[in-house]
Protein: Methyltransferase domain-containing protein
Organism: Dolichospermum flos-aquae LEGE 04289
Amino acid sequence: MMKLPRLKMVNRDEWLVDACRKKRVLHIGCTDYPITTHKITNGNLLHARLAAVATKIIGLDIDKQGIETLSKVMPNQVFIIHSAEELQSCEELQDQIFDVIVAADVIEHLSNVGLFLASIQKFLTPGGCLLISTPQSFSIKRMIPMVFSGYEYVHPDHSAYYSVATLSCLLSRYGLNAKEIYMFQWHNPTIKNRLVNTFLWPILYLSGGRLCDEIALVID
């Protein structure tokens, strides 16, 4: 059992950009499969925003096509095709350390998140941090449809959803600690999304953010 405080709700991308400002950054999951090109065209690609504020950034993703696209659009940046679960064996990262490692909406895609977490500290500077965001298991947007329709509406490539308690337990097994915890709602330009978020806002506020779409953590 874990008692949750009221959790501050943030804008995920703005939170990440602020945290990476003037820092050396490793961005894991730097593409946005399968809409990388669309995000580039619309100016909404997270990696481009991080690259604009970081003193150094390396993008890593298992998505070969997305990496090739980014390499063409951002020829002066460094990109690596590699699995997050096999960071330890990534030759391009040997002897490299970073102030911030970003893994935004990555861990829910992994088959073995422990392999990823076990390798993190090797690549962090003293005082450095890992920033994670991931879908929250108690999101009201998922629970309501499941209760009334009997269907789980999940991304077809997601292998796990986490709560604050389960993530805290998982991190502790690898000597990691969540020193800051936030929540956020996904916002996209569709009318449906705007209406749903507007309707849910009072509930999210009363819940102290505990029913939001995703968890965001600062981990050391």
Q: What stands out?
A: The chain has a mean pLDDT of 92. The first strand starts at residue 24 and ends at 28. The two ends are 23 Å apart (CA to CA). Residues 131 and 218 are 5 Å apart (CA to CA).
